[in-house]
Amino acid sequence: MSEDRNEKQEREVDQVRDVKPEKDERLERIRAFFKGDHYATRVTGAEILEAEPGYARVGLTLDDRHTNAVGLVMGAVYYTMSDLAFAAATNAALAERVGREDPAAAASAGIAPSVTLGSSIAFLASAKGKKLYAECRAVRDGRRTGYYRTTVTDELGTLIAEITTTGYRAG
User: Fold this and answer.
1) How confident is the model at residue 149 (pLDDT cuts 50, 70, 90)?
2) DSSP label at 66?
3) What is the pLDDT of residue 16?
4) Contact 161/121 with Cβ under 8 angstroms?
5) Is residue 56 within 8 Å of 92, Cβ to Cβ?
6) For the chain, what percent of residues have pLDDT higher than 70?
7) What is the mean pLDDT of residues 100-113?
């Protein structure tokens, strides 16, 4: 009896091991797709930490290029992180399917890309830490439009900004 239980536990552990490489591979395809977002990834240094359809988390380590004349983080940094998180959350399935090899393949993938129709940001506090995180979740994701909410925090847990974004599936 205990042998059967041990075998079952071993199978479950093997299944978990099999899922992680698949998830890592999907994340790498999504990251590769969004390397084309040069402003967010190259200029600001934002990095997609997690992404799947309807959810994404982006991180960034602050340095001098992110501050304004009075030494505070520019509001555009928070918005850029939010925009990248929204793009990853709403386009994860597309990015996963076509990767970066052929961005024009989006049309043939059968998934229309999503773009921002409108966005609103509320600045709530200044960053206290050195790392920022933007976490985006779908509130509603319909066939043509979606509504997403993003929070920007630092590693100390400071709630810095809240952003809502309405997206449109073009095509």
Assistant:
1) very high
2) G
3) 45
4) yes
5) yes
6) 80
7) 62
Hey, what amino acid is at 130?
Answer: K
Asked whether residue 4 carries a pLDDT value surpassing 70, the answer given is no
Residues 73, 125: Cα–Cα separation, whole Å: 10
**Which helix (H) or strand (E) element contains residue 168?**
strand 159-169
Per-domain boundaries in the chain:
2-169
129-132 long-range contacts, CB within 8 A, separation 24+: 129/62, 129/154, 129/155, 129/156, 129/158, 130/61, 130/62, 130/154, 130/155, 131/59, 131/60, 131/61, 131/62, 131/155, 132/59, 132/60, 132/61, 132/62, 132/73, 132/77, 132/78, 132/81, 132/160
Of 135, 140, 139, give the one whose Cα is nearest residue 161: 135
- What DSSP state is assigned to residue 157? -
CB-CB neighbours of 53 under 10 Å: 17
| 154: exposed, middle or buried (Cβ count in 10 Å: 0-12, 13-18, 19+) | buried
| pTM (two decimals) | 0.82
The third-level CATH classification (topology) of the domain covering 2-169 is Thiol Ester Dehydrase; Chain A (3.10.129)
Residues 6+ apart with CB under 8 A from 153: 132, 133, 135, 159, 160
Take residue 20 and report the two structure tokens written for it: 């992680």
